[in-house]
Amino acid sequence: MDNVSVVRIFTLAGINETMDYRIAIFSLSLIYYCVILFLNFSLVFIIVLDENLHEPMYVLLCSICINAVYGTTGFYPKFLFDLFSFSQEISYEGCLLQAFVMHSYACCDLSILAVMAYDRYLAICHPLHYHSSMTRRKLAQLITFSWLTPFCILSLGILLATQLQLCSTKIKKLFCVNWTIVQLACSHSNTFSNVIISYAAIIIYVSHGIFIMWTYMCLVKTCTRSKDNRVRFMQTCVPHLVSLVMFLVVVLFDLMYMRFGSTDLPQSLQNFIALEFLVLPPLMNPLIYGFKLTKIRNKIMSLVYVDVLL
């Protein structure tokens, strides 16, 4: 490893494999990012402007769309800039900020999905108590929890990363994440606290996943008793379930590869694995919810119909 005493600049080595196709990748990435922004902001505006959609489920959907914009904005603008830069570098502070955004985006997504599962559990399993349980104040508290908890945990992780003495500046990814920074630490650096925080975060969010599984076991059990509940389950829970499965698969795959995967894979394949959680969920979530949830679909169709008439 390089003998580096004070690191101020990192090199994002993962981007080197894409430079031969940078014009095509730049064009596709720019279009893709614009589509993500358009779809997510459109869904947010539809929910905000229509008072009939000011219900917990749609407010939570609004939150997950805002989180998608937050996460993708932490990656795409920098990536697009790097494609036409002579050197693919990022400052030490910028790397820490990007690592915080990437991790908090993923953790916030899972937290919001857990709150959405709780909302559906109350609505279907305890419909008589739903409105008294899921009040505006309770909803605000749950949304605050889903954002602040990841921010607090990951702030501690980033703070501990700043205490490490680094002996390399080469990051073999397209973007910064906390674990890649820890891997650059000198052999004599104490990374025990960083590892503890990482595993604590994993345990917390695995518990989120277990909670979601429990709510769906209750939902399925309740829905087998009533045709009306089965219809509600298909209309409101299936989009959430598809979104959840897609998110868990891409994030767990990337996490397992980052911790235990082989470094012998081609860099282009490593880049694809790393980017899945920034490519699939931000685009698919607004499409899945937009087409499946009846109220949102009807609102979109009415707006399109008005535009056609005009």
UniProtKB/TrEMBL annotation:
Coiled coil: none annotated. The keyword Lyase does not apply. One of its GO terms (cellular component) is plasma membrane. It holds the Pfam family 7tm_4. It is a multi-pass membrane protein. It is found in: Cell membrane. This is Olfactory receptor 142-like. Residues 39-289 form the G-protein coupled receptors family 1 profile domain. Keywords: Cell membrane, Disulfide bond, G-protein coupled receptor, Glycoprotein, Membrane, Olfaction, Receptor, Sensory transduction, Transducer, Transmembrane, Transmembrane helix.
